[in-house]
Amino acid sequence: MAYVVTVNCLGTKDRSCVEVCPVDCFYNIKKQTYNDKFNREPKGDDVGMLMIHPDECIHCGACETECPVEAIYEDSGVPENLKEFVQINASETSALSDEELDSCRCTSK
Length: 109
Known about the structure:
Helices cover about 30% and strands about 15% of the residues. The protein contains five helices and five strands. The radius of gyration is 12 Å and the shape is globular.
C-alpha cells in the first residue's frame, strides 16, 4: 500500500507533505501535459505535480493530513473519479532512472 498524489496538487505543489515525509518518496514531475489534461494553470513556471513513488512510500500517512489542498489519498481510498492517479504516480516514478530520481526527488529542507 502507498499514498497517491492527485489532481489538486497541479498548480499548487505546496510541499508541506514533503516536510513531514520520513523517507523522501516525493518527486517533482514537471510535465505540462498534466496541467493541460486536467485544465490546471501552473504556479509560475512550475508545471506538473508532485508524485509519490509507491515502492518507497512506507504508508505512514503523515503526508495525507499535512496536505493543505487535500490532494493525497491512501491508494485504496482514492475517490473513483481520481483512480487514474494511482497508475500515474506509479508509472511516472517507476520509469525514472536512478539519475532522474535523484534530480527530481523532493526532500525536506
